[in-house]
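Structure tokens please, single chain.
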Amino acid sequence: MKFSETISMALQSLGANKLRSGLTMIGITIGVFSVISVMTAIGALQASIEGGINFLGSNIFQFAKYPINGGAGGRNQDKYENRRNITYAQALRYAQLMEGSAPEVCLKIFDRTGGQAVYNGLKTTPSLTIAGSNRSFLAANSYTLAYGRNITDEDVDLARNVVVVGRDIEKTLFPHETPIGKVIKLSGHPLTIIGVLAEKGSAFGQSQDDICVLPITRFFENFGSAKRSVNIATQSVSQETYNRTLDKAIGAMRIARGLKPNEPNDFEIYSNDSLKSAFASIAGVVRIGAFVISLIALVAAGVGIMNIMLVSVTERTKEIGIRKSIGARSKDILRQFLTEAVFISEAGGVLGILLGAIGGNLLAVWLQADVIFPFGWALAGLVVCSAIGIGFGFYPAYRAASLDPIEALRFE
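Here you go.
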């Protein structure tokens, strides 16, 4: 019996029971959809998120009171909450100790509760990010200046009422004129715009261009310094001196914090690499979880395939007897029933892959990430579906092939 004939007969048999075949296929579709959608979303977002994680510049590490996730929900949450804030005086002491060892030491603090800028009756959204920093903010946070000037040491020393704004603010408040030299009110405080940042785009689905950066001393004057902790970003001269600079910086930070030799660090250290590693570990856990859930769904669908194929064998016993009596071999019967099982499984798998890729990419598009197709996972899905079709379809196919033609012909 030719293989093409086997395929044709398998399709005819499945077509005769379209509803039953479709319902069986849906189980496979759900299992494959769940894993492909998650893997597609993670794959599409990974480049975007890792790009967003690069908020620190090249060869830069950062000291902060809290870990990157804020410590929320962790076992050590109380530890982080009870830590002393990194004060501006401590940050200045650290910068003094690092003079000559690091080309850039950025002292920065953020207010993410939401600010609003106003100019001539025009208003931005009330969710601007307000940052207080020094001249090193651009290098330490991967921003560049589009035009105007940056914050200077003199601006910080004199607590000048100046601000560097992101492109979103420029587009909203100054659609037809230059903002340089104009006075805006930021959360009620007058500030003169001295520079505009180049467009940086979005990270984690959130714009990075709705930011206002003012001298850190002016930030404290306008928004207060109580209960605020300063973050300190430090850049090494090169990658080769990175570890040496980090070792010295930890010592300088301990001195600035007044820690004794036997006391542990009471601050967090992180860099782009450590943040990427943290994301990779989270993504790995999500992948494993999705795979386990999908595997359970696929096994359940495989049991459904076996059940339906056993029913099919019973219903077609007389047909099998007739085919054997006119010369069909056991392996032909085995191959036909296996083909039916594999076809149901593969059809469900292909549908699940397509729906999963679409679903995962819709999430990626919503978060402004690139659209991808997970070819590796799609191929793995097809292989797994084939294995399920063969594994769960073999026993019913073997039963069909083992039927005695005489007894089969007598079956009513």
